[in-house]
Amino acid sequence: MRDKPAGPLPPGAVIGILGGGQLGRMMAIAAARFGYRCHVFTPEADSPAAQVSAHAVVAGWDDDAALAAFAAECDVVTYEFENIPVMVAERLARHAPVRPDPAILAICQDRIAEKQFLSKIGVDTAPWQPVEVAASLVGADEAIGRPSVLKTSRLGYDGKGQAVIGRETDLALAWSDLVAGHDMAGIVEAWIDFSLEISVIVARSLSGTLATFVPVENQHEHHILRRTVAPAAIERSVASRADAIARHIAEALDLVGVLAAEMFVCADGNVLVNELAPRPHNSGHWTIDACAVSQFEQCVRAIAGLPLGPTERHSDAVMENLLGYEVERWPDLVRNSAARLHLYGKAEPRPGRKMGHVTWLSPRR
Predict the structure, then answer these.
(1) What is the dihedral of CA 104, 256, 280, 222, to 10 degrees?
(2) 292, pLDDT greater than 70
């Protein structure tokens, strides 16, 4: 078992990453700048993060022996997506610091817990009602009205785990289709006719220092993020409000690491929080090319006990995801001097699968 450093992690320390996706890949690349080695724990072989990490453990989340061996080699552990069993994070926390704390993971991976937390700290969300069992769906539907959105409490990302409830929707059928094969609760959430969707990425250090990146606009197609525009075209007062909300959430969570707060901007300028992600986020990829310190380096700094870096951008940016077979554009993009191309090392393109992204920079406005 390794001796865990008491202070900031020195070069050569090991950062454990739970999950092997592209967020872990870009985190490992950022960590290498400080001389850190990353160990990845993932159920998937040949994962994007494992390709650029010092070591990878390919095992299931229920493999106690593999988890214990992994934790023994790590000086700190983090995660690159939130659909990890909380018990795994709690188990690892007995052997190495886990940042953000497993309690934050528990809040952010469950929509009911997340909404309750936001309400408790005075952050506005869309009106919602919990649906603990199918029998409570009718009451929730009557309380919220239509149109609305029915969402599972867990395992929702890229439009998965949700369905629009319209005037003619059969509630029982919608519920059956959504939770088929899953034993979980859900929520009914009011439909918000928002002007645009934005997100703010906030970092908080071990000492409690906060830093945020400018609010950005997120544009979706078929519930998958198509592009992010930095900065968002919103009034300064709205941007300040969104920034303050993200900071408030990070403080209330006692966050150590990075968190993305997705928000709706309404026509009247009101800002509603939609979802939280306690990790780097797709809408922050532009920071790699447009800022001196990216969201990934900021995450590494925070969990390693280093001072946070500056978040000012030197350029405006538009980040576009390369979905599925769009990755085949790479020869043209790599020849384009204006394109900043990032490929994730995934072997098999599938419709809607994030294979990479490209960032286009322009002079800062």
Answers:
(1) 30
(2) yes
